[in-house]
């Protein structure tokens, strides 16, 4: 039981540390937005002079570079959000498991285990999590469940790409 609590605490600590990193990303993203705005304003002021064509080109290139960095930041936010969701689900599952294992009155009751499985499954919002969970309950090995989850994740990514 204490080891489960330790695992929950470690996951929670990792999530808190990750939130600090996300704050750094957020601050960087905000700074880049301000930079792009300044670049656009500066380029707008120089466009009326032909002798500044080289400077304008540099400004435009820098603006494109900053835009690329902003896109990378957006991707990092999306990755962290997904990671945070997964870790939150693991944390919840471990807490619920710890409560069940720590209660001798519930530990040997099959309906309690079925209820726990249902509660864990219900929290999964991503298809790949649901499919991995189902595969494991059907007897798949961890490696098989991971392959199923990876396949579902790639299918979801392909579907997301098609939407744009």
The gist of it:
The chain is 88% helix and 0% strand. The chain has 6 helices and no strands. It is elongated and about 85 Å long.
Descriptive report:
This protein has 164 residues and is mainly alpha-helical. Helix content is 88%, strand content 0%. The protein contains six helices and no strands. α1 runs antiparallel to α2. The chain is elongated. The relative contact order is 0.08.
Summarize the main sheet: none
Unreliable sequence segments: none
How many β-strand stretches? Answer: 0
Secondary structure: helix percent: over 70%
**Distance between termini?**
47 Å
Helix and strand composition category: mainly alpha
> What's the overall average pLDDT, rounded?
86
How is the secondary structure organized here?
Layout lengths: L1 H45 L6 H49 L2 H4 L2 H14 L3 H11 L4 H22 L1
Helix pairs in contact: 1-2, 2-4, 5-6
What features would you highlight for this structure?
single chain; mainly alpha; 0% strand; 164 residues; 6 helices; elongated
């Amino acid at each position: 039981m204490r080891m489960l609590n330790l695992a929950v605490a470690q996951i929670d600590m990792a999530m808190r540390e990750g939130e600090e990193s996300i704050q750094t990303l957020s601050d960087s993203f905000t700074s880049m937005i301000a930079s792009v705005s300044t670049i656009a304003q500066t380029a707008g002021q120089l466009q009326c002079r032909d002798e500044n064509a080289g400077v304008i080109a540099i400004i435009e290139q820098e603006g494109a570079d900053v835009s690329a960095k902003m896109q990378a930041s957006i991707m990092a936010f999306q990755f962290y959000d997904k990671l945070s969701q997964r870790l939150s689900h693991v944390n919840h599952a471990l807490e619920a498991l710890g409560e069940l294992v720590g209660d001798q009155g519930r530990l040997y009751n099959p309906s309690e285990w079925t209820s726990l499985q249902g509660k864990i499954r219900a929290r999964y919002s991503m298809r790949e999590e649901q499919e991995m969970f189902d595969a494991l309950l059907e007897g798949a090995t961890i490696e098989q469940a991971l392959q199923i989850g990876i396949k579902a994740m790639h299918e979801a990514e392909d579907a997301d790409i098609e939407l744009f």
